[in-house]
Write a structure and sequence with these properties.
It is built from 7 helices and 7 strands; from the N terminus they run βαβββββαβααααα. The longest helix is centred in the first third of the chain and has 16 residues, at 16-31. It is elongated, with a radius of gyration of 20 Å. The protein has helices spanning 16-31, 89-102, 119-123, 126-135, 146-150, 154-164, 171-182; strands at residues 4-9, 36-37, 46-47, 51-56, 67-70, 77-82, 105-110.
């Protein structure tokens, strides 16, 4: 089934204040490494006075169900969005809080606490992400450049990990040796 957020959509139409709040939340998400796309997880999110529709980034497998809030009569009443605890859930929760404050929704609930994750910590081991952050000159818990980390290739991540451990300039040789010893072909994703 998957982790789910629930709410009841009221009769109140979407306001400009709410649109501005959603745009601000999405901008913050982008800065901390959570990529928000349209309902299909592909293009820019839809944030208008008629519709708010977004998802995680499908290119990286970070999408699930789209979050949708419209002025359509058919959307009034009980609604839900399953996020499977993917990073865009952080945005869903903040958008629902803004919608509740604006009177657009009520009875907001969810399936329980979700650990805040950026796209990087969802895609890669938190241990690796913490090392890469430090290699970049950041504190291990500083997620401000996780957007860059989420876009790194596996080779770049491995190189950063090796660098942190004092092994500089041997990434290619080590990867080739692993392929030879284990008779595997490491592929880049």
């Amino acid at each position: 089934m998957g982790y789910t957020n629930y709410w009841i959509r009221t009769e109140k139409p979407i306001t400009q204040d709410f649109v501005n709040a959603v745009k601000s939340i999405i901008a913050i998400a982008d800065k901390i490494g959570i990529s928000i796309r349209d309902g299909y997880g592909e293009n820019k999110p839809v944030v208008t006075l008629d519709e708010v529709n977004f998802n995680g980034n499908s290119e990286k497998g970070l999408d699930h169900e789209n979050f949708l809030l419209t002025n359509e009569e058919s959307e009034k009443g009980f609604n839900f969005c399953k996020t499977a605890e993917k990073p865009y859930d952080w945005v869903v929760k903040r958008v629902l809080a803004a919608a509740k404050e604006e009177g657009l929704v009520k009875n907001v609930s969810d399936d329980g606490e979700v650990k805040m994750e950026t796209d990087a910590t969802y895609l890669f081991s938190e241990r690796i992400v913490r090392v890469v952050r430090q290699t970049m000159g950041l504190d291990a818990d500083d997620y401000t450049r996780d957007k860059e980390i989420a876009c790194m290739s596996h080779r770049e991540l491995f190189d950063a990990w090796l660098t942190w451990n004092g092994i500089i300039g041997y990434t290619g040789e080590i990867l080739n040796t692993i392929e030879t010893i284990y008779s595997i072909a490491l592929k880049e994703e």
